[in-house]
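Bug #77: duplicate submission created two jobs. Keeping one. Sequence:
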Amino acid sequence: MTDLQAATGTSHFVEANGVRLHYLDYGVSGQRPMVCVHGAAAHAHWFDFVAPGLKTNHHVHSLDLRGHGDSSWAAQETYAFDTFAADLHAFVEQLDLRDYVLVGHSMGGMVSLVYAATYPGRAGRLVIVDSTMLMPMDRVNAMRQFGTTSPSSYATQEELVARYRLSPPETHIAPSEVIHHMALQSGRQGADGRWQHKADRRVYANSQQMPGMPLWEKIKIPALVIKGDRSTRFGPQELAEIRARAPQVQWAEVSQSNHHITLDNPPEFVDVVQKFLST
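Kept job's structure:
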């Protein structure tokens, strides 16, 4: 992969569900709306490299969940799937988006699934990207423990960028220019002059084990599940369980990708999404 180009979205804020939410608007007005939702500890820019191919026929928005990116931090107990989904609902209501395409990656996929099951009638299509349908409890406990530790800080932005890695470490396969771009968008300078990651680590401290499978019984709209060919989070058994509850669900695998598919192989991700949306 060469010549990857990041879209430049315009930055906006809305007050929704009691918090200040930030989002990127990549355009193009008049096209069918699309809302993209990132995973844990990520941010709206996770879709910068796929937005150019998606905005050819969609008005693409990418939301920072509470506690992430440039959205407000909040009380630790509000970092929960139901609250994230309520934020998404309030955001969509604020922008008056209808019959829109909802794309969620990882934790954002679970947020999108909870939203679509809880607030039917707004989203017209659903795309779930490499989301675990039931996080093992030992991993939930490890994330909770991580969430109680002190966040790292860096003397300069350059130091933060140099030490930036995707998590888990084995998923760190995206092109170097993509990783560098994500790193530049992932930190902010504090009042003391030092740099920290934008994500509130307490999101992990409040990790939940959310059963995703039962939610599919409430999904009646066309839906697509995407996995990376190197990802182990999703397989034929999970797909069969989903289709038993929602027979309309389609499936796609993106090559040369692990968990962070929108970063690992943006062109092929765009291709599979556009193929789904054209049917």
